[in-house]
Amino acid sequence: MKIENNSVLLYSSQTNLVVGKLDKDGVCFNKKEFVVRKYEEVAPIFVAAYSWFVNEAQNYVKGPPEAEYPYWAFADINNVESHADSTILKLNVPLTEAIYFDMQDWYKILRLSYIGETAQDEAKFKKMLEAYGVKNESDVILTNFYPQLKREVQESWKRLFKHHENIKQGRNDGDINIQAALWQIKKEWIHTL
């Protein structure tokens, strides 16, 4: 991750609609309705994960009232997915404006899975689910049948932010694929690729 002058270099793929809004207004905020529209039939999974993220992330970087959901950015351009109607933005973001985490941990949340302290902890939790007869781990979050397990899974998700302060200080052991959340994107942060 490249840090200079209290800013971090990040990459983010955004639709041409977002890029146009940035050009016109100078700032852009993500809305829940955009996420629902983008993910259609699997939107409930994303809404569950994103809603949890929004509540917890406020403890690390307070978002402006206009921001309902974050934008995603990455320290490595190779982790950015590009689509036909999108543009990859190269951003110099103030260090204090981003929430940092391991991309692999975020994928666990998107699968509505438990984030263990260790691989052994995750294996132990999976065995516990088997003992309860849970076949799909996501059912713990998406149904009301397992309130205690749901609390345990959601509590484990707080581990997503375990690397935030170290990454913000420029300390990364190299095993982390750094992803960042931004409550907004500002035109002044954009640099050409």
Question: What does the model show?
Answer:
The protein is of the alpha+beta class and 193 residues long. The chain is built from eight helices and nine strands. The strands form three sheets. The chain has a four-stranded antiparallel beta sheet. A three-stranded antiparallel beta sheet has the order 4-7-6. Strands 3-8 form a two-stranded antiparallel ribbon. A hairpin with a 2-residue loop joins strand 1 and strand 2. The chain is globular and about 55 Å long.
First and last CA, distance: 16 Å
DSSP helix count?
Answer: 8
Structural class: alpha+beta
Mean pLDDT: 91
Order of helices and strands: EEHEHHEEEHHHHHEEE
How big a fraction of the residues is strand? 15-25%
Name the strands of the widest sheet in spatial order: 1-2-5-9
- Rg, Å, rounded: 17 Å
**What's the count of strands?**
9
* Major pleated sheet: 4 strands, antiparallel
From the structure provided, what is the oligomeric state, counting identical versus distinct chains?
single chain
Assign a percent range to the helix content: 25-40%
Low-confidence spans: pLDDT under 50, at least 5 residues? none
